[in-house]
Amino acid sequence: MIDITVKNLSKKFGDFTALKDLNMTFPAGTVTCLLGPSGCGKTTLMRIIAGLEVPTTGEVYFGNDQVNRLSTRQRNIGMVFQYPVVYRGINVRQNIELPLTEDKTLSKAERDKRVDEVLDILEMRHAADADISELDNGTRQKVACAREVARRPRIILFDEPITNVDINSKLQLKRALKELFTRLKQTIVYVTHDQTEAMTLADQIALMNEGVIAQMSKPRELYDKPNDAFAGFFLGNPGMNFYEGIAVNGGKVTCPLFPMPIELAAAHAGERSVTLGIRPEHVRIVGAQTALAVPAKVTSRAVVVGGQYLVTLKVGDTESAFSIAAKAKTRAGADHVTVGSDVWVEFPIERVRVFGQSETQPQV
Prior knowledge:
CATH 2.40.50.140; 34% strand; 6-stranded mixed sheet; 5-stranded antiparallel sheet
């Protein structure tokens, strides 16, 4: 196992800057997901780590060794691509074992042990003798993953390996990869635009936006405590409710989300205005007025995954212009939450995130 460090890393393609002065470490023995929208720079970063692209400026280190001048082969990495790379005309076991035969230090017994280990973890022992041409795309991708893991390179890079398989294979492959990563503890960089994949598989997520790292944290921390408004917007379905341009007076904010002025922490008390954010699942629709509740009217309601309702609310003085919209997730069975009904809503202060004007603002 070995860690990866990039220092002052930038990459330009003509006038376009794909990566902007990145400094980060991928810890040894962990899974780091590069997550972000198309064009954010995640694949470019992975290709630089692999040696397939040359950085415009900056260095890449594997452990203490700078690898900028090393070829992809010399870096001793494994790679799994969007489409499964398999060898036709031979069976599953032979596909996995083939790269191992090039290592003359491995005995036949050691090769068999490595192959059997990954076959067991991926629950593929029953298919060990199957011809590759007889397998579906998802199972072929399992074979491609197993081959790279069995080689035991210093680092394995995954470039959206689940993107091009059917939905059933996608779920099976995700479970298999989670088991594989948990058991073997190799250093892995995993590129995806799918937040569910990242939240499921990663030990840490590097959320990228326009060539920079918006935030690098453990999955739950990134979701619950985004330190950048883009993180709050990109993660979640839907993302956070945002309220921009909320004036700050005497270190406090007053807005329809709260029945009284709310004092800000010192980090934001000196701002002229801030953006407030809260996730829909943290907005509480309550049956009666409470000390923290504000009035609201239900304007729409739709059933979403997990037997919940996604409710759109008009919050505040619903009969005047002094109101704002909010989305809330609530469990099915709340009979009082119907379109047109008046309800009481709480926005728990501990769940509200505050973003200053100097921070990245969401495009909503």
